[in-house]
Amino acid sequence: QPGVPPEEAGAAVAAESSTGTWTTVWTDGLTSLDRYKGRCYHIEPVPGEEEQFIAYVAYPLDLFEEGSVTNMFTSIVGNVFGFKALR
């Protein structure tokens, strides 16, 4: 969105597509959100496009079922495409 710093948008994407949508429940004391959150580790501008950026996000493998491309795809893409802060 216009006016949102790329670093803030990258961090929001990382959170939204990993632990940012988790609902607080009594079991929160049993897991460490730090261990499971995605991290935006690099942002670069899109050549020739003003105010457009590519955010690189890393996710812990523990978030995904082993060998399940479908699980990975829906976990990442499903959340990010529905994220209103992005355009």
From TrEMBL:
A GO MF term: ribulose-bisphosphate carboxylase activity
This protein's UniProt keywords: Calvin cycle, Carbon dioxide fixation, Chloroplast, Disulfide bond, Lyase, Monooxygenase, Oxidoreductase, Photorespiration, Plastid
A GO BP annotation: photorespiration
GO CC annotations, alphabetized: plastid
Subcellular location(s) per record: Plastid
Signal peptide as annotated in the record: none
SUPFAM superfamilies cross-referenced by the UniProt entry: RuBisCO, large subunit, small (N-terminal) domain
Gene3D superfamilies membership: RuBisCO large subunit, N-terminal domain (3.30.70.150)
Reactions that this protein is recorded to catalyse: 2 (2R)-3-phosphoglycerate + 2 H(+) = D-ribulose 1,5-bisphosphate + CO2 + H2O; D-ribulose 1,5-bisphosphate + O2 = 2-phosphoglycolate + (2R)-3-phosphoglycerate + 2 H(+)
Keyword Thylakoid appears in the UniProt entry: no
Pfam families in the record: RuBisCO_large_N
Coiled-coil region(s): none
EC number: 4.1.1.39
Record domain Ribulose bisphosphate carboxylase large subunit ferrodoxin-like N-terminal: where: 2-86
Keyword Transmembrane: no
PANTHER family, per the entry: RIBULOSE BISPHOSPHATE CARBOXYLASE, RIBULOSE BISPHOSPHATE CARBOXYLASE LARGE CHAIN
Function: RuBisCO catalyzes two reactions: the carboxylation of D-ribulose 1,5-bisphosphate, the primary event in carbon dioxide fixation, as well as the oxidative fragmentation of the pentose substrate in the photorespiration process. Both reactions occur simultaneously and in competition at the same active site.
Family recorded in the similarity comment: Belongs to the RuBisCO large chain family. Type I subfamily.
Protein name, per record: Ribulose bisphosphate carboxylase large chain
Originating organism: Galium spurium var. echinospermum
